[in-house]
Structures are given as C-alpha cells and as structure tokens.
Amino acid sequence: MQFVVLTGMSGAGKSTAMKMMEDIGFYCVDNLPIPLLKPFWELVAQGTNNELEKVAVGIDLRNGQPLEEILEFRKRAQESGDPFEILFLEAEDAVLIKRYKETRRNHPLSGDARVQEGIRKERELLKGIREQADVILDTSQLLTRELKEELGRIFADRRNYHNLFVTILSFGYKFGIPVDSDLVFDVRFLPNPYYVEGLRDKTGLDEEIRSFVMGVDEAGEFMDRLDSMIRFLIPHYISEGKSRLIISIGCTGGKHRSVTIAEELHRRLLDNREYGLKVEHRDLTRK
C-alpha cells in the first residue's frame, strides 16, 4: 500500500496535484480533518479493496489544527513498518503573490493585511512539517505537465527523489543574465551559426544547428567537463538541503549555441537521476 499526505503552501498547486495523483491511480481525499486521519488510515490499511492500495490525502491549514500532529502519527506508523509519506508543495513568494492576483483571491491567513503577510505567516506555521517531509516539490517554474511527470516518476514509478529540482536554462547575454541563476556558463567561445549562410533563422532545437555546434572538438570536451562537474555538484547541493538549482547557459542571442548545449546537458542528465529536471529556453524567440 502507498499512503501519501499532500500538504504545503496555499497557492502552490495542491488541488492540481491531487487531480494528478488521481490520474496516476491514487484514491484521493482532499481537506481531510486531522482527527479523521488515524481512523481513515486504519480503514485503508486493514482493507482488502484493491482500489485503496494507493491513497493520497490532502491536508492543509484549512483544518485549523496544528499539522505537527501528522508528523506524530507518521512516526507511529513508520515505527510499525507501515507506509506513510508526506509530499510538500511550495513556491516562491513572488510566484504565490502573482497566482493570488490572477485568481483575485485573498490568502487564507492574510485577513485584512496584504497577501505577503499571509504567506509569511503560513511559511512559519508550515516550517516544521516542511523540514520533515519525504518529498518537497517547488512548483514555481513547473508547467502543469511537468508537475504531473514528476509526481508520476516519484509515486507511480517509485524512483528515488532527493527534493532537488534542476532547471537548465538557455539565455542570450544581450538580454541580460537570468537573475535567479545559481550557476552560469558562457558558451560564446564556440563557433556562432548566426554568421553561417542558411543557419541564422534556425535554432538550437534544429539538427543543423546541433550538428554545427557539436561538430567542433571544443564543444565535446566542454560538454564532458560540464557533465562531470554538474554530477559532482548535485549530491553536495542535495546534502546541503537545496531544493532548487538553476543552471544558466548563455550565448549572444540565446537562440543557437546556448540552446544546443542546454539540450545536450539535459539529455545527458536524464538517465538514472534522483531529482527533478527540466530544460527551458528563455530567449529562443526574442530578436
């Protein structure tokens, strides 16, 4: 049996995640009162109905009760050898504020104050359960399909997950370095397809550009060194508790070389990973 409690920040996508858990075969119950958690779990654990072999329960501050009670019950369950996992969804303050503005809703803890104050209060109240969650997913930069992919990989495919989400981001220096970058790599030392007849209007997603960029020895050597360094760094970021890593790769316009290298790094890191991973191209269509 799989038993997952889904909680986290208001606006981080818990309702969406519950629907996705249902799509991958979980029996889902949202906003279950905490006093009912123990009897519901016992009902599921003792049952023989195959439909309830995978269960997800949504619990958040709407309960009006301390969520630390979930941790106490999980401890007792795990000491008995029974399955019990906590999935915590979070997002950056700026992203949460934007989402509240778009939906024209008020934060449940803000009252007459600003949304920011409600978010601050909620983070403080959820600090304890976040620190002890089995899986933490930052949805700040995740598309709906990407969130579903990660949930499926963690809970359907049962892949190990170390609470780190890596974004590989291509960009153009002429538009500025991404302000949220953790690591920045400059690939302007590679030959530029922009100056080759017939290649200017193509992008790093096209095979002609990929072949041109990766066709020089320097590109292959750079990729080997970059791949090795990232694989060295990631376990250390995980051990330090980092939940999000943005690797930015830049060329002049963000259309050719950086896109090719970002795609190549993404391809290399896809296999046997124990963390979330996506690739984005910030300036692919800008001129």
Radius of gyration: 22 Å
Shape: elongated
Unreliable stretches? none
CATH class of the largest domain: Alpha Beta
Strand % is 15-25%
Helical content stands at 40-55%
Give the helix tally: 9
Largest sheet: 5 strands, parallel
CATH architecture of the largest domain: 3-Layer(aba) Sandwich
Give me the strand/helix succession: EHEHEHEHHEHEEHHEHE
Based on DSSP secondary structure assignment, what is the total number of beta strands?
9
Helix vs. strand class: alpha/beta
Please characterize this protein's 3D structure:
- By secondary structure, the protein is α/β, with parallel strands linked by helices.
- The protein has 2 domains: 2-156, Rossmann fold (3-Layer(aba) Sandwich); 165-281, no CATH class.
- The protein has helices at residues 14-23, 37-46, 68-79, 93-103, 115-131, 144-156, 207-214, 217-239, 257-269; strands at 2-8, 27-30, 54-58, 85-90, 135-138, 165-172, 183-186, 244-251, 276-281.
- A 5-stranded parallel beta sheet has the order 2-3-1-4-5, sandwiched between helices. Strands 7-8-6-9 form a 4-stranded parallel beta sheet, with helices on one face.
- The longest helix is centred in the last third of the chain and has 23 residues, at 217-239.
- It is elongated.
